[in-house]
Amino acid sequence: MLDAKMVRAQPEMIETALRNRNQIGLLENFLTLDNQRRTLLVEAEEIKKFRNEASQEVGRQMKQGLTSDDLVDRVRQAGQKIKELDQKLNEVESAIENIMLNLPNIPDASVPVGANEESNRVVRRWGEPRQFEFEPQAHWDIGPDQGILDFERAAKLSGARYTVYKGLGARLERAIINFYLDTHVYQHGYEEIFPPFLVNRECMVGTGQLPKFAEDMFKIEGRELYLVPTAEVPLTNLYREEILEEKNLPRYMVAYTACFRAEAGSHGRDTRGVIRQHQFNKVELVKIVLPDQSFEELETMTQDAEKVLQLLGLPYRVVLLSTGDMGFSSAKTYDIEVWMPSYNDYKEISSCSNCLDFQARRTNIRYRPASKEKIRFVHTLNGSGVAVGRTVAAILENYQQEDGSVVIPTVLRPYMGGLEQIGQVQSRVD
RNA sequence: GGAGAGAUGGCCGAGUAUGGUUGAAGGCGCUCGACUCGAAAUCGAGUAGGCGGUUAAUCCCCGCCUCCAGGGUUCGAAUCCCUGUCUCUCCGCCA
How is chain A split among helix, strand and coil, in percent rounded to 5? Predict the structure, then answer.
C-alpha cells in the first residue's frame, strides 16, 4: 500500500509511475474521496467533542441532583448525527481503501521504463551454456525415460500441471531442498522457518496477493484460508502488527514450502514438464530491514540466490525487470534465469524484490528506532532461493549424458548418499 | 467434538459485581538527570499508537479514535448486552 499522504501530495508523480506499470486512471476517484473523507471527519469530530464535554456535564449535574433534560436531549441528537456521519465516513473510507489496496508499488528510479519484458535489462551472466555433442533432450523426456518423473500418473491423481516424483527423482528434489536450506542457513545467515502452508485472508492482503489476484490462488472451500502461493506470504506476515526493536533488525529468514498456484491466465504456456505447475517446491528468502538499507540488502539477497546456482554449476543470467514486467508489490526486481537447453534460452528460476514499505504498510510491521525517533515502517524483501522443481529440470537438462543418464552435481552428492549419477546403474520399476 | 476460563500499554498486571475527570493504578523494562573516579545500588523526571486541525515544517499546540474485533444499550462504556476471532485448562479423539 502506498502512503496516502504521498498520493495526496504528488498525484502527478504517482500517476506517471502507474502509467509505466500499465495501470491507468486508478487515481481519479482518490482525490475527491480523500477530500470528502476529511470534510466528514472534521465535522464528526466537532460533534464528538461536544458530546464528550456535554455528557460529562450531565454527569456533574446528576451528582448534584439537578438534571437538564434539554442538555440530555441535545446530546442524544448529537449522537444520532454522529452515527450518520460515521456511517458515511465508513463508506468513503472503505472506498478509499479499496483503491489503495489495488494500487501497485511505485517502481524505483533505477528501474528501466517499458511496457513489458522486452525492456528488461540483463545486468550480468555467470557460466557458459554447454555445447552438446549430441542432441540434448528436454527434462520432460529425460524424467519419464529414467523413471523419475511421472506426468501421466500425476494427471490421474490431480489433473494437468502436477508431477509425481519417483525414486531418485523424489530423492533429488529432497536433496535440493536440503542443500538450499543448509546453504542459506549456514553460509548466508538466514534463520530457518517452517511455516503453515495454509494462511488466512489478512496474510494474503498483507503481501499483496489479495484483493487483486484472487483467481491465482487456491482457497479452502467454506473457510477463509488459502494455500500459500509462496513462502513469502507466511514469512513476511510473521511479524504482522508488530513493532520491532531496531536492534533486532535486520531479520533474515528462509523457508521451504510447497507452493500452490491456480495460474489462471497462463493456459498454453509452459505446458510440458515441471516448469509451470499448480504445486511446486520452493526455498524462499525474506528480509525485514531498516529503510535506508533495503537496496543494499536486495543486492546481497540476489547474490545469495545466485550462489546456489554457482555451487550447482548451472549457467544463469540476472535480469533487472522493467516497470511493465514487475510484480504488484515490488519497487525493484531482479530475476535470475537459468540456462534451459529445452527452451534454448534462459528461464526464470528466482525473483528477488525490494518492496520498500509497501508490504509493511499492509501488514503494519514497524520498528522503533534506537535513537528515540518516531516509529517507522520497515522495508521487506523477498527472493526465491531458488525454485526447486525448475532446478531439477535444469539439472536433468544441463547434466544429461548421451546414454540418457544424468550426472549429479558434486555439491548434491552428500545429500544423495554419495550417488554420482542417475540412470543406468539404478534398477527401475515402471 | 464436549465443559470451563480468559484477551488491558514494550512486558507483567490492577480496574469490570456499584457505567462518569481512567488512555488507563502499581511494577518491570527503557531514556535522561543527580550521586560516583567509574559502575552497581539509590533518588528524581520522562516513556503508547493512529487519524485530523494548525504550520513552511519533522517540532509545539488543539481535537478525535483505540483497553481482541464488529454490532447494541446509554446523556456517557475498558466496565452492561449480542455476535465473531484467538489463547489457555480439563475430557474425548487422533498422526
Answer: 45, 20, 35
- For A211, how many CA atoms within 13 A lie in the half-sphere containing its CB? 7
The residue whose grid cell reads 528488461 is A120
Distance between the alpha carbon (CA) of A290 and the C1' atom of B65, Å: 29
Q: How far is CA A409 from CA A12, A67, A175, A383, in A?
A: 52, 88, 11, 23
pLDDT at A426: 47
A396, three cell numbers:
536433468
pLDDT of residue A424: 64
A350 sits in which H/E element: strand A345-354
Q: Residue A414, preceding bond cis, omega within 30 degrees?
A: no
A317 is catalytic: no
Domain A117-422 of CATH type 3.30.930.10: yes
CB neighbourhood size of A190 (10 A): 23
Q: What ipTM does this complex have?
A: 0.87
User: In strand B, which positions have an atom below 7 A from any protein CB?
Assistant: 10, 20-21, 31, 48-53, 58, 63-65, 71-72, 74-76
pLDDT in tens, A220-274: 888 888 999 999 999 999 988 888 888 888 999 999 999 999 987 788 889 899 9
3-state secondary structure of A347: strand
A47: nearest nucleotide, CA–C1' criterion? B64
Q: Selecting from 3.90.1150.150, 2.60.40.10, 1.10.287.40, 3.30.1490.190, what CATH number does the domain A28-102 have?
A: 1.10.287.40
Q: Which residues touch strand B (CB under 7 A)?
A: A 4-5, 38, 41-42, 44-46, 48-49, 51-56, 58-60, 62-63, 72, 75-76, 79, 83, 90, 243, 366, 372, 374-375
**pLDDT tens sequence across A365-383:** 988 887 777 888 999 999 9
Q: Where are the beta strands (DSSP E) in A201-266?
A: 225-227, 243-245, 251-260
Delimit the domains of chain A by residue range: 28-102, 117-422
Gap from A198 CA to B50 C1', in Å?
Answer: 30
Residue A238: closest CA among A225, A259, A223, A254: A254
Give me the amino acid identity at A211: P
